[in-house]
Amino acid sequence: MAHGPATMADGWIKYASRWLFTTNHKDIGTLYLWFSFAMFILGGAFAMIIRAELFQPGMQLINPEFFNQMTTMHGLVMVFGAIMPAFVGLANWLIPMMIGAPDMALPRMNNLSFWILPFAFAILVSTLFMEGGGPNFGWTFYAPLSTTYAPDTVNYFIFGVHIMGASSIMGSINIIATVMNMRAPGMTYMKMPLFVWTWVITAFLLVAVMPVLAGAVTMMLMDINFGTSFFNAAGGGDPVLFQHVFWFFGHPEVYIIILPAFGVVSQIIPTFSRKPLFGYSSMVYATASIAFMSFIVWAHHMFTVGMPIAGELYFMYATLLIAVPTGVKVFNWITTMYKGSLTFETPMLFSIAFVILFTFGGFTGLMLSIAAADMQYHDTYFVVAHFHYVMVAGAVFSGTAAVYYWLPKWCGKMYNETMGKVQFWIAFIGFNITFMPQHFLGLAGMPRRYADYGLQFADWNMLSSVGAFMYGAAQILFLFNVVRTITHGKPVEDPQVWEGAEGLEWTLPTPAPYHTFETPPEVK
Amino acid sequence: MENSHRSLLAKLLAFAVAMFMFAIFVLPPLYDLFCEVTGIGGKTDGLYKAVAVEVDTSRQVEVQFVAANNAEMPWEFYPLEHRVVVHPGEPRAVNFFARNTTGEDMIAQAIPNVLPNNAADYFHKTACFCFDNQPLAAGEQAELGLVFILDPDLPDNVNTVTLSYTLFDITDRATVAVSQAQ
């Protein structure tokens, strides 16, 4: 190796410049992962404030205006700051190593797409300290709440969303270019690891819909500042149009979040089952059809706007149809485990929990997709419970599994298995205590996004808050375990790390050197 | 940068820009068109030029009028007749009453909505105060006129049509061409 990366020993200026100007996919992956963990803690802190306020009925800690800002910021920070960058970080680290490429295709753009993110979130979070407060209209920012009735700081929010969108688009273009142009000889599309496949499809979704989000906020910006009437009924516009545009972005967005998670789990389950993934090609086709269908079901988020019955029926049946490819995936994961030599290391525990809890969230999703039933569930805690089962037990669990699974390869040290398992059980139990009762609250009629509730909801809310504090504590343990591994972990030398692991990244030395696959490997 | 990367980058960027344009310039007109075709949202058409049609005296349809103020609009605003019974094809004039209860000159805009949705296309207006914005000086009042014709092709299952107006305060934004809104 000609020269390694600068370390603290070279002086802090050199060390800081290394991170600031890095074009190395591993460095950028690391930056993305740490940034997303910081955002995860911040969004988690907002969630703790929400659950603390909802611990008892009545107003205890914060006022309703601030509560609204907390629910909004929690959603925005978690979706755009924690989950999405976490998977981009994994993609940066792993895709070049998995397809036998020396780096990402567009390394300078890679640097740019990361470094604009901290600015986007600095702008967004700074609004909390401004006069009028931060965004308070929910993470879905429906007009006219986000236009006519928005705080003045909404312009900062719009600017922040634009930057995040630009970052995501650049990141996705980079991933598509890397996978299409830089695969090692012999690495055909149908030999790519499933994580790479799910990410390519996700990247196409991102390039298609992030501009639509940018369009939605641009129309908001013009309505607020330049007197247009896209969403303003007084000028001939229509607030319902906002919901259509938003969910045209928003529904593919939920698959953008979950597809890479599918990919991660499809790597981990075969390893700890010591069997190849069952039904590889059906997994690829299922992922592609989920991605396609995500574009034609958006209005199931808005069954209550007064759609004609034909529209409700169409969106209901189309949504139900998505259960088919998703069912194929769940079937394949379970069949991979069937008669395998299973061991239950921390990444496997998180992956199995993913399969179980994601399926649970999928079933509540099916309940919500029934238009007639949705009239009752709409905007209740049932919806909150549903999407936390798929976002937290889905995306966040698989992200945690991914960190535990690849951490030894990244830093050459093994994490503490006992601590990992303790974290898993606290997270698993805490998660279910938090969100299972929210199903009951929603079915009993508790609406979401309110700072207070009727006395009949008190018991389940208190339980839910206790679970949330447990789940939050598990994340502190996670942080501690990761930092402890990096500083004091037991060194690992076996390139394969895990007995059953397969794929190009496990043929590299452990820890993965700064530059890898400078001569492409031969894939048979 | 390698040429293969460059051309892919250009294509994907162009695709992203196209999707942005699609969201701003295609989706909203498409949505309006869709609503107009299907009658969703109860949008009525603009000024209607009356054509000679035979009045269908065998059929009676009740037309109800609803008036509402948007958000903080302080005006008094109500229909002078709450319901009329008409034959399809027959022009009918009705009046709404509006009074500016504030001490300031204001400009308002009424936005119509017709229920049921499948009646929206058959509710024609040959004159309507909703085609223009309505300036009223402080304390001033006015009767606002509307002439409508129900199309004889009105679907058979429609016996009652409800026309609602929501009055918006557009004083601050009246410089914008609001009169194009129906």
The helix/strand order of chain B is: HEEEEEEEEE
Number of helices of chain B: 1
The domain count of chain B comes to: 2
- Overall 3D shape of chain B: flat
Structure characterization notes:
The complex is a heterodimer of chains A (524) and B (182). Chain A is an all-alpha fold. Chain A contains 15 helices and two strands. Chain B is α+β, with helices and mostly antiparallel strands. Chain B has a five-stranded mixed beta sheet with strand order 3-1-9-5-7, with no helix packed on it. Chain B has a four-stranded antiparallel beta sheet with strand order 2-4-8-6, with no helix packed on it. Chain B contains one helix and nine strands; from the N terminus they run αβββββββββ. The radius of gyration of chain B is 22 Å and the shape is flat. Chain B has one helix at residues 3-38, and strands at 61-69, 76-79, 83-86, 92-99, 106-115, 123-128, 134-136, 141-150, 160-169. The termini of chain B are far apart. Classes of the chains: A mainly alpha (524), B alpha+beta (182). At the A-B interface, helix 6, helix 7 and helix 8 of A face helix 1 and strand 9 of B.
Short description:
Chain A is mainly α. Chain A contains 15 helices and two strands. Chain A has a two-stranded antiparallel sheet with strand order 1-2.
Sum up the structure in keywords.
heterodimer; A: 524 residues; mainly alpha; Cytochrome C Oxidase, Chain A; two-stranded antiparallel sheet; 15 helices; 67% helix; B: 182 residues; alpha+beta; Ctag/Cox11 (Pfam 04442); 2 domains; 5-stranded mixed sheet; 4-stranded antiparallel sheet; 20% helix; flat; disordered C terminus
